[in-house]
Here is the input.
Amino acid sequence: MNIAIVGCGFIGQKRARALAGCRLVATADVDLARARDLAGSVPGAVATDDWRQVVARPDVDIVIVATTNNVLAEITLAAVRVGKHVLVEKPAARRAGELDPVIAAVRETRARVHVGFNHRYHPALRKARELFEAGALGEVMFLRGRYGHGGRIGYEKEWRANPELSGGGELLDQGVHLIDLARWFLGDFVEVDGFAHTYYWNMPVDDNGFLLLKTTDCRVAFLHVSCTEWKNLFSLEIYGRQAKLHAEGLGGSYGLERLAYYRMLPEMGPPETTVWEYPMGDTSWEVEFAEFVDDIRLGREPAASLQDAQAALRIVERVYEVSKR
Here is the structure.
């Protein structure tokens, strides 16, 4: 299959290195030099600063959309309307309503759209899901997640700090990953509460988000996302009546990726502990894209869908709403 990448920054470059045997034929970016740099790594690939040109190409099968949040939905909609399959990076839009016309267009075409919730494809989280589905936790009670980084000099001047481009702050940026993982394990949330606030960075969007989410059967997710973490952190704990799973680290600056399984013994006390470690580089991008290619070939609905993105965005919007009170 032939691929076009729209948005050739850091994420677009990572996607270009994980194309699962597909061929990159075109790139587009508002910074033409950046598009040319990425296209130059593949013989025959062309570059432009007009995304409409690559979306319209008849030889393009899949469009990867890795732009700023304000145009994610617009480009995805245009690609779907001309029959292209799309991998759109999270959060897929700035607001849930921006996805309504995209979802409607998908229903009218045979296009498949996968949202880039790549954290689902990290090995520790895939193993956690395997154990979860096998009933290794017993009845699931609640989930606790923390995710954060420390920013960098000038962070408050980057596009993520501009609400017109980003749609929100840290709650929308890293927060949707935690929300998506919480929904993946616990299901839909019917009660949403939380607080988003700017504590440190001089910017008009939040740098911390706190969430308390509850399902119909009272399973609870307690989540915290932050760009005042100072030491990069990822931690997801899932608690059952018989055991607990703890996934932490994402490799690189987030530390060694690992999963611990703590099984309660009949006499209670210290649990039986099994640990899996994943010291290799981040393979989530390759695994995710390979699954999407299989979805297209098999006519299968993508696991990380537009509906998943819309559900996460609705939770973000609700927390922003209650934070204004």
